[in-house]
Amino acid sequence: MKRFLAIGSILTVLMLSACGTKEEHVNHGATSSDEVPEMLEVDLTVPETAAAGEAVTFTAAVTQGEEIVEDADEVKFEVLNLSSGEKEMIDGSLNEDKLYSIDYTFKTNGTYDITSHVTARSMHTMPTKQISITGGEEEAASEPDSEPTVKHEKHGKDHHGTGATIVFNEGTTTVGEAVNLVTKVSLSDEPLEGARVQYDIVRIDAEHHTWLDVPEEKAGVYQKEFTFTEAGTYAIEVHVTKGDDLHDHVKKTYTVK
Predict the structure, then answer these.
(1) What is the pLDDT of residues 76-129, one digit of tens each?
(2) What domains, with CATH codes, occur in the chain?
(3) Residues whose CB is less than 8 angstroms from the CB of residue 223 and which lie 6 or more positions away in sequence, other chains included
């Protein structure tokens, strides 16, 4: 009788151990799945045209999966005059419709880039749209001899806006081969040290963005190794920020075979 009781106890212990192992395996799988966050999506709304002197509303709807993001760390709207290079950075606020927005009044005719810089839940994204302004003051004309030189200098230095000079070369690589993506940043002809540099990498026929924080290897030189897993043409946008006043970016293409 004692023998049968002993055997029964051993079988019960083995069954409980097996159940515990199975339950632990299932829970582990659920935890692993939870560690993969949904991508941050920003739907920027900008009218195609507007009149100078009238208030224009720009909105950014921020979502993660099916959830509306109301706790963004930072939402700023950049207004960039494509003719003069002048820009403003304005803090957006969450309105009653759960959209981040600003009201802005243009004074000068021209074409402007509107970029919403959104940082939330350890991710950053910044879509851009254009707006044309009419009915106001014309942009002050430059001297005929000097205007081409100024424009050539800006494009030649990969300069965006009125801040840092960003040099990032376009290139070609192959799938599965690690490539070193190097950016040189300067300000007033001096290497810009201690900046935050990020790469926004996206294949031009897809929507998935890969964000990389890029370390500084030496004064003003930032580089990061990256391996492309699919062939195609990629847009790489380099973002450079330092403090509250400097945020510049330049976009280049990379061909992956």
Answers:
(1) 999 988 888 788 889 999 999 999 999 999 999 999 989 898 988 888 888 889
(2) 40-134 (2.60.40.10), 147-256 (2.60.40.10)
(3) 180, 181, 182, 183, 214, 215, 217
